[in-house]
Amino acid sequence: MNNLLQRVLFAVPAAAFFIGMTWLGGWFFKGMVIGIGFFIIREMIRMLDGAGSPVDILFPYTIGLWIMLSQDIPHSFEIGIGIFLLFVAIQTFNHSPNNISELASTLFAGIYAPIGLLGLILLNDFGNNHEGFMLTLLLTFMVWGNDVFAYFGGKFFGKHALAPVISPNKTWEGFVSGYLGSLVGTAVIFYLVPVTIPLTFLQLVPMAILVATFGPLGDLLESKIKRAADLKDSSSILPGHGGFFDRFDSFLLASPVSYVYLSVLVAFGYASF
């Protein structure tokens, strides 16, 4: 079976499952996202270890779970303070040769993906169930559209390297093409899915632009870690697609920036959910 066929055969049911959980919302969606978060943390620990920045194996999961559940558990601030104090106490008496690097790497592994995925959870919780579903679907197609157009834009028109040291195959032409793809993804969902939201297409254009800007940055950051660890993929758990970090790297920055943008619209009275 060639790689393209394998990718398609896995991607179609995986996308259907993701959209189905998004439609169900609530703890169905949150449970899926938390599971994805744990897989990404696991992959990050492996990658950072391979890059020479060892990670504590317990605290990234503890910190990550606290972040992803912070909106739903009582006394979340106090629990977070307790986790922080315990982490500092243990790390203070860590006398391993790489203890300073482990301190920073553990925090990064525990915070980076969970904050991005918390943005996805908050986006799905925006408004009522149908509105949250629509916003999450819009974000998803913005990211997918950006990825597809950036790939083909770079393949057919790419001449100028975007970040040659980090990812030699990415080009400025592909990056710019991604903006069009994000807008196309927005239009497809906005005009074809029969679920209404209190936003106009023009109000979604800045969100699409933010996604097309920060999504690729998330991709490049993962590429930077993989290059340091001398890895092609974050793992091989997803047939033809690498790991969960590979599939959700763009979401980790696109989700929180989208949530912040929508929150600003609501705060200034330009939208009401």
Total count of strands: 2
Radius of gyration: 19 Å
H-E string:
HHHHHHEEHHHH
Estimate the global geometry from the Cα principal axes. globular
The tally of domains stands at: 1
Relative strand content: under 5%
* Main sheet: strand order: 1-2
Verbal overview:
The chain has one domain (about 5-265). Helices cover about 75% and strands about 5% of the residues. It contains ten helices and two strands. The protein has a two-stranded antiparallel sheet. Helix 5 (about 100-125) packs across helix 10. The mean pLDDT is about 95.
Concise account of the structure shown:
By secondary structure, the protein is mainly α.
List keywords for this structure.
273 residues; mainly alpha; two-stranded antiparallel ribbon; 10 helices; 2 strands; globular
Which SSEs are present, and which pair or pack?
Layout: H1 3-24, H2 26-50, H3 59-69, H4 76-92, H5 99-124, H6 129-157, E1 161-163, E2 167-171, H7 172-192, H8 201-229, H9 244-248, H10 251-267
Antiparallel strand pairs: 1-2
